[in-house]
Protein: Voltage-gated potassium channel
Amino acid sequence: MASQTSPKDDARGWRIRARLRALYHGSSRQAVRFRFTVLIIDIVIIGFFIAAPILKGEGWIFYALDYVIAALLAADLLARALAWTDLRSWLKRPVVWADLFILATLLFPAWLFNFGFLRVIRLWTLINSDFFWRTVGRKYDDTHVEDVVKALAALVTFIFVATGFVYTAFVGTHEGLTGYVDALYFTVTSLTTTGYGDILLPGAWGRIISIVIMLTGVTLFVRLGQTLLRPPKIHFPCPSCGLQRHDPDAVHCKACGEGLCIPNYEH
Structure:
């Protein structure tokens, strides 16, 4: 016979979900403090992901940290799922699948360590999440600051993902490429097109990877430069024509002339 939950259990479950929804999506001071704590833990975890190739030589200490972080990430994913209104729509989000893959690399480090460099993608997903900007503060949400931070996060994420790939696939294949710092050095010199030539990736695939790093790096640098230099805009949809971005002090829409009332959070 299938087990049935009692009304008391159902009520307890709804209270837990309501509590988690208030913490993850609410605007109370307690909710903001809770999200700040989660963000600090996330940043520490990302730091571990970046240092993982160096820490792997620590043996059981590395694997202990790996499983502790796996437990934290699993608990966070479960809490986010319970806080979401529709579980099916939550599972359709690409960010969720990225986090699930990261969790798999943490749970099975001996088998999936070669894919561990993809864990740094969590930096990009974190910076591009509503969770991050609701916590950091509405003062910066949908502003020029957000655009700059997102462009910088994309560049930093690419640098460490490319470094991890070069380290995993090519370390030991060139006399100058012997460790993680060498892989980072090669990635930075390649994406800045400096190309000192002291470290080269061997074979045709090495040349292809070098080309991809250079082209992608230049593109991300240009995007960051454009974001820094262009005039700041604020996200505020025009109620008439739907234009999304306006000058922070705009009182009329440039497209249709509709009057605007853009909130000012400085006071």
The chain is about 65% helix and 0% strand. The domain at 143-230 is CATH 1.10.287.70 (Helix Hairpins). The chain has three domains: 8-136, 143-230, 233-267. The radius of gyration is 23 Å.
